[in-house]
Structure formats: C-alpha cells, structure tokens
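yo, LysM domain-containing protein is done. seq:
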Amino acid sequence: MLKYSTYKSIYTEPVQKPSISSGRRSTHLSRTAKRTMLVLVLLLLTCTGVVSAFASSNDNANKKPLETVIVMPGDTLWEIASEHKPQGKDIRKYIDSIKRVNGKHVSSIQAGEVLVLPN
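structure:
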C-alpha cells in the first residue's frame, strides 16, 4: 500500500447515507394506500352488484310474458308482423325487433318455426 497519497476529497463534509426507515415508511404508506383502494373498489363492486340484483328482480316481475307464434305453411314475416304489431308502430321496425329477439339475421322463416314476438 501507498504510504502517501495526493488524493484530496472534493467533499468537505462526510456523506451521510439516507436512513432506511424513511424509505420503508413511504413504501408502507404506499402499500397501505393500495390496500385501502383495493378494499374500496371491492366494496363498490359488491354494492353495485347487490343493487343491480334487486333492480333486475323488479323488472322481471312487471313484464308480461312474451307472445309466441308458430309459423304455418305460406306465412311470411310481414304478415305475422302486421297481425301482431302494436298500434301506431312502423311495421318495418317491428319486423327488425322480431328478428333481433329471435336471433335472426334474415327475414326468411320456415313452417313449424316458433317465433317470439316482442311487446
């Protein structure tokens, strides 16, 4: 080893390392904040689910059952819609709603098919 050195420090005061406790404290607060946010989000989702469950049960009680029609040979969707559409409703919109309720993409129907008619 060298007995003498020409090295001179540019620092006049000794460097202090940051304390470990202050770093842990901010991490601890961050973890606590994350846990609190998680609990609040879970509580909000649970409350929303309970409210929507009660709201949907009331909707089903007030609705009357949907009417169904069995397609006879020679029937068309236009004829069925014109016989069962609500008064004052456009027949084209009613046909579209019949197709949507029954999951149909085209207007063709077959004899013996059961169609659900919207209200």
